[in-house]
Structures are given as structure tokens and as C-alpha cells.
């Protein structure tokens, strides 16, 4: 069974000590979907809903969330992010929206959690802004798409 890096020998939670790790360029991409009714998707894509351009607000919310990940996830290091890009686009099958986040830093630890947090908050923001039209929306498939940099190297979802 692999060791959990955030648990010490006594079974207590700890922040991983990265002080001896070399700084390197790191990047992570995460994505997730919000499934909704066709009418709800049209409202989201029109940009003219009562709450304004819901996609633009969700993208901004995702960027803000990535920057606050260290405050939200107890064992995450606060990181100096060098780039955060969040996009919200319609799914090819017309069943909803996909949020994608690409986060970069140059540092001693990766940005996977920042990318996942950005996507999660972008999707939650979309839900919040569209719930008056469709309370049955579902958030699904939030996950890491790829990561690069660091001692563990590159990884891409198969």
C-alpha cells in the first residue's frame, strides 16, 4: 500500500515539506461538466440572462478560486501562480457546458489542486447562476486531464 504524503508516521495530518525540492515549471489541466436542459443551455449561451454573462462570471470565479486554493484545502501550500486560464464552452452533444482550467507555476510543488478547484468553483458558479431556470442540473466528471513538471514527471489521463 503506498504511503500517503499528507500523513505522518503517527497517523496525523501534515503539510508536506517541499523545502528540499527543486523549483521547476509546473502545469496542470482539469475539466468537468455541468449537464442541463437544452433551454438552460440556450440561456447560458445567450449571455443575456438576468444575471448577465454566466460563462464570463464562471470563468472569473474559477480564476479567483485557483488563487485561494491554499486557503480552502487544508494541506495545500499557498502558491505563486504564474498563469490561470479558465474556459467554459458548450459540450459537443448539446447537453451542457464544460469548464476547463489550465494553471501554471514555477515552484516546488504542483498545481493540480488549483486546477481542480478552479473547475469546481466555475461549475458551482454556473449552477448558482442558472438554478432559477433548471434545478436539476448535475455536475460530473471533474478530474485532472494532465500535469507536467516536478519529480513525478508528466501524466496524461488515458
Automatic annotation (TrEMBL):
GO molecular function: cyclic pyranopterin monophosphate synthase activity
Molybdopterin cofactor biosynthesis C (MoaC) domain sequence ranges: 15-150
InterPro entries the UniProt entry points to: MoaC, MoaC_bact/euk, MoaC_sf, MoCo_biosynth_MoaA/MoaC, Mopterin_CF_biosynth-C_dom
Positions that bind substrate: 75-77, 113-114
Active site, UniProt feature: 128
Reactions the enzyme catalyzes: (8S)-3',8-cyclo-7,8-dihydroguanosine 5'-triphosphate = cyclic pyranopterin phosphate + diphosphate
Top-level division of the source organism's lineage: Bacteria
EC number from the UniProt entry: 4.6.1.17
Pathway this chain belongs to: Cofactor biosynthesis; molybdopterin biosynthesis
Keyword Lyase recorded: yes
Keyword vocabulary terms for this entry: Lyase, Molybdenum cofactor biosynthesis
HAMAP family noted in UniProt: MoaC_B
Subunit: Homohexamer; trimer of dimers.
NCBIfam families: moaC, PRK09364.1
Function text: Catalyzes the conversion of (8S)-3',8-cyclo-7,8-dihydroguanosine 5'-triphosphate to cyclic pyranopterin monophosphate (cPMP).
Similarity field: Belongs to the MoaC family.
Protein name in UniProt: Cyclic pyranopterin monophosphate synthase
Taxonomic source organism: Brevundimonas albigilva
Amino acid at each position: 500500500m503506498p504511503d500517503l504524503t499528507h500523513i505522518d508516521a503517527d497517523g496525523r495530518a501534515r503539510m508536506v515539506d517541499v523545502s528540499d525540492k527543486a523549483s521547476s515549471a509546473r502545469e496542470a489541466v482539469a475539466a468537468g461538466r455541468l449537464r442541463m436542459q437544452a433551454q438552460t443551455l440556450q440561456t447560458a449561451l445567450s449571455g443575456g440572462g438576468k444575471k448577465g454573462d454566466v460563462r464570463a462570471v464562471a470563468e472569473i470565479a474559477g480564476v479567483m478560486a485557483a488563487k485561494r486554493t491554499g486557503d480552502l484545502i487544508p494541506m495545500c501550500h499557498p502558491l505563486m501562480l504564474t498563469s490561470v486560464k479558465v474556459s467554459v464552452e458548450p459540450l459537443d452533444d448539446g447537453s451542457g457546458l464544460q469548464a476547463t482550467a489550465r494553471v501554471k507555476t514555477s515552484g516546488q510543488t504542483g498545481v493540480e489542486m488549483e486546477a481542480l478547484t478552479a473547475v469546481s468553483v466555475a461549475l458551482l458558479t454556473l449552477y448558482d447562476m442558472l438554478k432559477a431556470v433548471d434545478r436539476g442540473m448535475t455536475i460530473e466528471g471533474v478530474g485532472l486531464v494532465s500535469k507536467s513538471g516536478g519529480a513525478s514527471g508528466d501524466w496524461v489521463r488515458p
